[in-house]
Queue: 2 jobs
Job 1
Amino acid sequence: MIITETDRKANELKRKILNLPDLPSLSGAVYYVSADGDDANNGLTPETPWKTLNKISKFDFSEGDTVRFRRGDIFRGFVMTHRSVKYCAYGDGEKPRFYGWEKNLADPELWEIYDPDKNIWKLTEKILDCGTLVFNEGEKHSRKLIPSFRGGRFCCRYDEDREFFVSEEMTEDLDIFCNHDLTLTVKPSKGEDFGIPALDWNTLGELYLRCDTGNPGKVFDSIEALTRRHMFFVGNNENVTIENLCIKYVGTHAISASSTRGLKVTGCEIGWIGGAIQHYFGTDPNYPEGRRGSVTRYGNGIEIYGSCDEYTVKNCYIYQVYDAAITHQITTNGKKFELKNIKYIGNLVENCVYSIEYFLDQNQGEDGSIIENCEIADNILRLSGYGWGQQRHNTHTPAHIKGWSYTNPARNFVIRNNIFDRAAYRLIHTVALDSSSCPRMVGNVYIQNSGASLGLYGTQSDACELVFDENNVKNTVGDGDGMVYFIK
């Protein structure tokens, strides 16, 4: 019964988000962009729109300007945002869509047979590293094979004495492998005596796909690659607003910001994000099975890494993200960071590994940093760890609220009136150095499978795994008004 009611609430919220009206521009010039526009136009009217994201990235906007993208159109590439500029929609129909790679790969001419005995195909064009491939708008997706790299060669991730050969390792239909044009570092980060692959935003390579039913360009109507790039790169630009857009098929972050203020993301649909390789290490003694070559994949829906102020994510629908749907985070490395006035309100998150992630890791003893005035309220967070991101090696991390077990100093941090609907591992993981920094939990709904975990809550010295039951919700976590539902 509770699942039926949660389904109803989630569908109602999704309809609201997908049909939010466009708001008027309040100041500055308004520029228009459409799929059939022309970058030689002036962009100042719907009849004279620009065409490409490259034009948007390079144009010298003034503070207070607005960029409007035509509804129903698809735009490919990425956007370098500008300070105090709003990016939003105009016209009728579905939200304008932003896809990460330059083309749909469902074209038979783009594929050639590599190993006919194993049904392995190779893309005829080079491409950035791919987090995964998504077929027919989400009907299916790939499993990404990621070998380790040790001693100048790729080797099998769980048997590093065995060299990685594409034809031997691609054992399942729709497996992919990205073979990069490698630039090797002189000194890998873990101090070994061999170089490791150094990926950047321009590292291209070969893409292999096993497709047992024939040429993938004929089998599928759409094949979208989640390539290694951000879609909206905010950086340090202040007062950026992103509103009523659809951002999909991006291999790193849909929206990425470093230390900034005034970032507002409202009414957006964000899906199928992440999974590209962030970096390789050398032999890592702690990662996680012992001395093996490690590879890190990443990708969040909306991320601030650094200080922030007046950061709002509201009424967004976010799904199928490799890491976190929404996050503010920083490892201080001895510097001071303040993450203040953060609001995550009225969002629907489904099938992400972490619905909402936060952390403030004071890894060098610096004690001046703080998370202050953070409100996570009225969100519906569903099925953490049940999406495609669970093809990761560390399957024991999913949670709807993921604060990890860092020092996480905080003041006035509240998590209220949310629905936490099932997680593959923990519903919550919120730990801090001292109890005053733990978020205050108020009136949330907790839904979990019988026998599964509620999670970790409390201080670093006393937090332990909590069985999912009403006593732990109301007394250990302190959510006296919380509602608890068991799913058999």
Job 2
Amino acid sequence: MDKNRKSAYYTLLDVENNMAYSNIALKNHINKGRPDVPAFVRELTYGVVKNKIYLDYILGNFIRTPLDKLKSCDLVILRMGLYQLLFMNSVPEYAAVDESTELAKRFSPGHEGFINGVLRQYIRDKDYVTLPARADDEVKYLSVKYSYAEWIVKLWVDSYGSEGAEALLAAGNETPEFAIRVNRLKTTREDLLARLRARGYEARLSERAPQGMLVSGANLLGGRLFKNGLFSVQEESSQIAVEVVDPQPGELILDVCAAPGGKTFAMAERMGDRGKICAWDIYKRKLSQIEQDAKRLGIRIVETDMWDATRVRSALIGKADRVLADVPCMGLGVVRRKPEIKYKENSDELASITKKQADILEASSNYVKPGGFLIYATCSISKQENQGVVAHFLKSHRDFKRVDLLELMPHIDRTDGFFVCKLQRNDAFPDA
């Protein structure tokens, strides 16, 4: 049996049955299965996950049984086979069908004939399959074409219009480049660029992130350059957000939702490892990882602590120069990296998440000293989570004013979606 498709099958079944994140499941099953061509496994896995609604819509034209009644193993194999037929030009049609049949013999014995028949019927009749009529239901049309839950499509159509929404949907299906942040405490971009190229990696400097670089090549995180702390993995938008924070050497900075620590370390490096950063999270294991990474990077000013960011620590009221509230969010800006987000079942979570965001922003505002800064950030594309939360906060906090705002959009900036709003506290407290 083909080891590559077997690894993809195990990954996709893990995602389907256990709601595993595709990137984590993929890494685990590649390590276990040791496929011959990991790049093929990644393309097939991410391709199926990114196009799940579209694939299911097409399959529905050739299967009488409702897809939610099929066994997970059958549905995963059908999606894999159909994706290869639709998108992988390097795979001949006969190979896509035959290999899918072999997978069925192994993982769904007795159903191989059914799976073979569905894929062959698609090959015969594919020209008769059409998308839902856009004129009748634009949301349905865009949902199927780009494989997003309908509520997300409607959210973006309402916010950005049909053209803007479609551009966003398409950008979310693109494969992002691999970005890193150079550790200025240990090297320079130019030095690291030369070292990476000398080791055979394709690398170029980011045009938007001052310490960023875009790299491609195998085992980048297994080499000495990473282990010795010369760089960290961090997407360009996240790096740019730290530029808005603008931390200065010697300051006290609170990062109230710090995990996994990318912005924490970027701030510490920018500060020349002088000052103090309090990095908080509610999970001890995440804090342990922050501590390990800080040691790898040679950073000494980060102090971790378990804390719920919706609560106020009285000892730190009015003490911080800057407070970063990079709050939990719907994550609609990072679907390129986490395509499972596209299939959140409904928008009910939006109301609860915005309340939590507002609570964190409210609590965080207490720590800012007069003249200090409060920075609110999300990796989401939702006016409710972004402009809405900030506007609600400012209505009841006249001691704060907006001094900067950055909104990065995947279809415009070619980065992940990101929102950063920088607020400054007046020179005196309201009751001063």
